[in-house]
Amino acid sequence: MEDRRDFPEVFVYGPPGDEQGAAEDLALKLVELGITEPLVVQSTFGEALGARIRTSLPHVVPVPQANQEWAASLGSRTRRLRADAIVAIGGGRCLDIAKLAAARAGVTVVAVPTQLSHDGICSPVAVVPAQGACGESIGAIAPRVVYLSIPTLLGSPLEAVRAGVGDLLANPLALKDWALAAERGLESIDRRAWSLSVESFRSIEGYLSADIAESARDPRFLMQLAEGLVLSGMAMVCAGNSRPASGGEHEISHAIDHLFGGRALHGAQVAFGCLISTELYA
């Protein structure tokens, strides 16, 4: 029987319902989970969802230049305040900062994404810049819980949805790279992680020929995209590394970040990298 003890618990709110209902439901879920004094880390887009959370601790908004040092400082503050969890409500940067801070503080993370732009939602990896540098992938802590508010996600930018799809496009190519490395004795394949990666891509495969602008306003598609991104993160948790979801196409995206400071959302750059990787395999 499959052991999922290391995988996060996923809760989904809506449809139907609105963001106010999601905020109330999130607050209730935290209490049911025994989280009574969380430190809330939120972006400006996460204010509504975090408004009903019961805690005596402050709500923290990451500064625009938040980096690894800032995350470490937040982790130290979390420990001093004796918070029993960090609840991260926002986009990818907010979630990554929170995962890194939680690793420093030794507490659990509840991830509440306000957009579905990449598969780092429940992965144990955080992409956070070092001092004066570009984003760097470093080990952090995987969330214990993922909470998805469909009413919130329906209002997310189209560019974020495109990026989320772009990140999942990488998985079949990442598996090819993984297999290639295994053939040369450089890696070993984790079959469960492999299967989860395949499953994550299949979650959105049927929508690839559809108009993404229409799909982005379809709750059923957002559920499938969310499932795919969560499964992709679980694949990385299972493997203990990013191999199931990150190959040469991600290296191309990191090179763009390094050389040009980034030109688009991570998932959009990964999709561009997929074009190059596909041509190399052809």
Task: Write down how many β-strands occur, each being a DSSP E stretch of 2 or more residues.
Answer: 8
Looking at the structure, the CATH topology of the largest domain is: Rossmann fold
Query: What's the overall geometry?
Result: globular
Helicity, in percent? Answer: 40-55%
Counting DSSP H or I runs of 4 or more residues, the number of helices is 11
What is the CA-CA span between the terminal residues?
38 Å
CATH architecture of the largest domain: 3-Layer(aba) Sandwich
Structural class category? alpha/beta
CATH domain class name of the largest domain = Alpha Beta
Low-confidence stretches: none
Cα-atom radius of gyration: 18 Å
> What is the ordering of alpha helices and beta strands?
EHEHEHEHEEEEHHHHHHH
Beta-strand content estimate: 5-15%
Number of domains: 2
Strand order of the largest sheet: 1-8-5-4-2-3
What's the overall average pLDDT, rounded? 93
Largest sheet: 6 strands, parallel
Write a brief structural summary:
This protein has helices at residues 19-32, 47-50, 68-80, 92-105, 150-153, 158-183, 191-205, 212-215, 219-239, 248-260, 266-281, and strands at 9-13, 38-42, 59-60, 85-90, 108-113, 125-129, 135-139, 145-149.
Features:
single chain; 282 residues; alpha/beta; Rossmann fold; Dehydroquinate synthase-like, alpha domain; two-stranded antiparallel sheet; 11 helices; 14% strand
